[in-house]
Amino acid sequence: MPSEFPGVPPRTARLVLCTPDGRVRGILPPVAAATPWWQEVELVVRAVRDRFGIDATILRLLETELGRPHGGEVTYLAETADPAPVEPWGGTLDEQPLRLPYARPGGPAADLAWARQVLEGQGLRPSGAPEQIRSWNLSSLWRIPVEGQVAWLKVVPPFFAHEGRLLERLAGGPVPRLLGQAEGRVLLAEIPGEDLYEAGPARLLDMAALLAGLQRPWHGRAEDLLALGLPDWRAPALEAAVAAVVERTADQLAAADRAVLSGFLSGLPRRFADIAACGLDDTLVHGDFHPGNCRGEGSAITLLDWGDSGVGHPLLDQPAFLSRIPDEAVGPVRAHWHECWREAVPGADPDRAAALLAPVAAARQAVIYQGFLDRIEPAERVYHRTDPADWLGRTAAILREEGERPSV
Questions:
Q1: Same-domain pairing of 151 and 247
Q2: DSSP assignment, residue 376?
Q3: Is residue 209 part of a domain?
Q4: Residues contacting 34, CB < 8 A, separation 6+
Q5: Which of 54, 67, 247, 284 lies at a 20 to 30 A Cα distance from 9?
Q6: Residue 6, domain member (yes or no)
Q7: Which of 75, 93, 111 is the last residue of a domain?
Q8: Which residue range is the domain that position 57 belongs to?
Q9: DSSP three-state, residue 236
Q10: From start to end of 93-170, where are the E strands?
Q11: Closest CA to 285 of 325, 319, 252
Q12: Is the Cα dihedral 317, 323, 329, 335 positive or negative?
């Protein structure tokens, strides 16, 4: 069937089923998934329920037809206690030291039991069955109906586990309301409104100002953030990490890009010194700031998804945001963003800092994705396999453009 998503082939899903104690039962015939995104499992679970009458919980990715996301035939491991019309499956399940608890049989049930305990401690009772929304190497997400409202259970790998601690510290600000948190688990209250992917010009300005407002109280307080477990993206740490990912990815890069990046690495100490001279200290960095990670109702905006957060220059968040908004909005949003920081730090030069940071921000993305690859099990690496090289290629392109402009 033709895909409703231009440029992305449709997804067909097959589920290898196991019992809650891990015994393999077989594989289900394929079902069509309404969306191509591999990690979005809600519609796969629904399709399996509608066709076969069974309730299954998807644990992890086993195999994909395509070498990079998304679409094509995808095989998942799922658990169920229900009788199912399975066919024999000739594969085997291995053990992996990096496997996450929620990717194992019984793992999601343990997460949901924790969530029920948190809710009961606050006098709240689930009013319906939990619904699995997403499962992949970066998160497990469940929607839990609770007496006229909804709670969201999010479970993440250890490298994102600082999100709950950070949300505790940001409580009362424009962030999700935390119902409970433990290492790697957060239970969040429903946020009214809608995700703001298609936000208009005024809302985009508000988003930039809102992030700057959240960052200002942490300006110059890097050690407090590091104590919460946030990763370090300050100059010394980032310089070393960028050099390491360039070295590890060199054989995947074009020779011309390697040459450009070599010059970039040798100039990083001077570049970071020039950035520091612009007057903005390290602070809280969201790490994945874009309109889709903002949710709003009326004039209120909530900034979502703080698992990618870290410690570094406040304008590290800017390039990703500007790349996901309409071209005609980029100039006004950037100008407003910089004005927020000029007001917060008189004498600062955010214009120059942003220009110097552009290739650094792209290279940081390569570092982040290499970190994912290093800390997730092999079958899930297909999600991110090409990302470090892709982002270093973008870094080289930015550096070429920078070389064609007057000196920053």
A1: no
A2: S
A3: yes
A4: 43, 47
A5: 54
A6: no
A7: 93
A8: 11-93
A9: helix
A10: 131-136, 139-146, 149-155
A11: 319
A12: positive
Could you tell me which residues are beta bridge partners of residue 95? Answer: none
Helices (H) and strands (E) in the chain, counts: 11, 15
Please name every residue paired with 14 in a beta bridge, in sequence order, or none if there are none: 75
Whether residue 321 is found in the same domain as residue 270: yes
CATH of the domain at 141: 3.30.200.20
**pLDDT single digits (tens) 156-204:** 999 999 999 999 999 999 999 999 999 899 999 999 899 999 999 999 9
Cβ(219)–Cβ(212) under 8 Å? no
Nearest Cα residue to 144 out of 132, 160, 156 = 132
Examine the pLDDT at 406 and tell me if it is beyond 70. no
Three-state SS at 77: strand
Q: Which two tokens stand for residue 378?
A: 């092999």
Contact, 80 vs 56, CB < 8 A?
yes
Encoding tokens for residue 297?
Answer: 């109702």
b vs e for 152-186, b when ≥16 Cβ sit within 10 Å of the residue's Cβ?
Answer: bbbbbbebbbbbbbbbeebeeebbbebbbbeebbb
Separation of alpha carbons 354 and 134, rounded Å: 34
Residue 136, classed as helix, strand or coil, is strand
Q: Does residue 136 register a pLDDT over 60?
A: yes
> How confident is the model over 222-236, as a mean pLDDT?
97
Which three-class secondary structure state does DSSP give residue 80?
Answer: coil
Encode 188-222: b = buried (16+ Cβ within 10 Å), e = exposed. bebbeeeebeebeeebbbbbbbbbbebbbebbeeb
pTM surpassing 0.85? Answer: yes
DSSP state of 26: E
DSSP calls for 351-365: HHHHHHHHHHHHHHH
CA 353 to chain centre: 25
Boundary residue ending a domain (136, 159, 189): 189
Q: How many domains does the chain divide into?
A: 3
Give the orientation angle of helix 327-344 with respect to helix 350-375, to 10 degrees: 110
Q: Are residues 271 and 390 in the same domain?
A: yes
CB 359 within 8 A of CB 264: yes
User: Is 161 a member of any domain?
Assistant: yes
Tokens of residue 194, six digits: 């809608």
